[in-house]
Design goal:
The chain contains no helices and 8 strands. The model has no long low-confidence stretch (mean pLDDT about 80). The strands form 4 sheets. A two-stranded antiparallel ribbon has the order 1-2. It has a two-stranded antiparallel sheet with strand order 3-4. The chain is an all-beta fold. It has a domain at about 1-15 and about 40-70. It is globular, with a radius of gyration of 14 Å. It has strands at about 1-5, 10, 15, 30, 40-45, 45-50, 55, 65-70.
């Protein structure tokens, strides 16, 4: 997640909602827990790794998608 006010990115580890679903070819839902975000607009991107192979969304690496705006 990109924090515009601080001009930095923060990475959050995500966990599968259904740990028994190991066939990702048909999609999978992941979640992470964050108790507090300062009010501002955010941007996000996803990175996944299997061994030394990385995948990014949105691609290419370095791009962020507009994310949620957290209000006061």
């Amino acid at each position: 997640m990109w924090f515009p006010a601080e001009k930095r990115a923060c990475w959050f580890e995500m966990w599968p909602l259904d740990a028994t679903d190991t066939d990702y070819r048909d999609g999978a839902w992941f979640t992470f827990s964050r108790q507090w975000l300062p009010p501002e607009a955010y941007a996000y991107r996803f990175a996944a790794r299997q061994g030394s192979n990385w995948a990014y969304w949105p691609a290419p690496a370095g791009n962020y998608a507009p994310g949620p705006t957290v209000g006061p």
